[in-house]
Specification:
The chain has six helices and 14 strands. By secondary structure, it is α+β, with helices and mostly antiparallel strands. It has one domain: Beta Barrel (Porin), CATH 2.40.160.210. A twelve-stranded antiparallel sheet has the order 3-4-6-7-8-5-11-14-13-12-10-9. A two-stranded antiparallel sheet has the order 1-2. Helix 2 runs antiparallel to helix 5. The N terminus is likely disordered.
Length: 304
Amino acid sequence: MTQSETESGVQHGADGVPRGQQILDKLVARLDLERIEVNLFRGVSPPESPPRVFGGQVAGQALVAAGRTVPEDRGVHSLHAYFIRPGDPTIPIVYEVERVRDGRSFTTRRVMAVQHGKAIFSLSASFQLAQPGLEHTEPMPEGVPGPDGLPEFGRLIVDLDLPASPFQQMPRPLDIRYVGEPVWSPTFVPTKEPLRVWMRADGALPDDKLLHVCLLTYASDLTLLNSVLARHELGLRDDEISRASLDHAMWFHQDFRADEWFLYECYSPVASGARGLATGRFFTQDGRLIATTVQEGLVRVTEG
């Protein structure tokens, strides 16, 4: 497909649709799983995938599978997941949903993602009927620059004059803008401060609450483990660091739109035993805390 670039720097395809919207639409289509039985779904990976399926993709697809078996008036409030085996992006993933419980206020589902007859990922998700209750929230961090003055991810790669890794070269359905230097910058200085990045879907999304939650789940696996690396003096070449998500949990606090800016603040309180723990908080641009995430990942330094 031929592309053109406007004076604003936004790339368009031959059909005039912005390039970001085209890539986002493809992700939305991948989240629209094929239903092959009442509790059985099938999903695929993009042709430009890295050697193993991106964790955020399989988590988002598994959440879609769970949500397709739940009444629409019940929104996701939490998920807990384990990454069991690396996924093969060249073949479909089958998602098996177990309807654990349908209560008056809460609905619970378990999902197993399967390839080659073996489990690669498991998810437990809880859905809740909207109810009133006590409310309080942590405020958004003060003094964080807004996204408008920060370079877009692709521009940042160019400005730093870095060869992009295979993962960084993948088509990006999200507009990603780092607050400060990313850990893969050659001049990054280790820090005990949280890492912060602005994100949003790079285009418009339909009014589907489950889809917006699944997009945030997808985004949650992109930069979280970087907060483990940020605490240490390390070379960050792909052949020096082995990283993989092990388990992942999220809690969703308020409604939001994933095609509007949200700040993702990531922090690692501890690392040991070749594992690192990372926590994340999502804030809307107007300061609402909309979700919290915790992940433990494999972070192994290989011998050069």
